[in-house]
Every structure is written in structure tokens, then in C-alpha cells.
Amino acid sequence: MTRASFTADEVAAMHNISASKVRKMVAAGELARVPHLGRTIRIPFQAVVDTFGPLPDHVLEGMGS
After folding, report:
1. Sequence-distant (≥ 6) Cβ neighbours of residue 30 within 8 angstroms
2. Is the CB of residue 8 less than 8 Å from the CB of residue 22?
3. Which of 27, 37, 55, 57 is most buried when burial is the number of CB atoms within 10 A of its CB?
């Protein structure tokens, strides 16, 4: 089973980029976020896949799929 969303830090760690880069992508509209969470940034699973491609194997193994 996959998770519905990830934090900016989790997305950054998955793809070896900085969390600030992920936050800048969200601010620029390049990466979707879950709305109505205040300042909290959660990125939907599908937005991660659409932007970066399939999740790396090490991430999927950690999710128990």
C-alpha cells in the first residue's frame, strides 16, 4: 500500500534534492500540494510520480509494498 502524500523533506530525500528546492517547486506551481493545510506542505503521491517518475525502489521497500 502506498501513502497518499509526502512531506517536502521526504520528497527531497527520495530524489536526492534539497527540501528548499521542493518548496520552491511548490511555490512556483511546478509541484502540486495538498490544499488547506495552512503552512504545512504535503505533496500528493501522484504529483511526486508525475513530476519525478516512479518512486525509487528503496522508497517502495520502506513503504512495505
Report:
1. 51
2. yes
3. 55
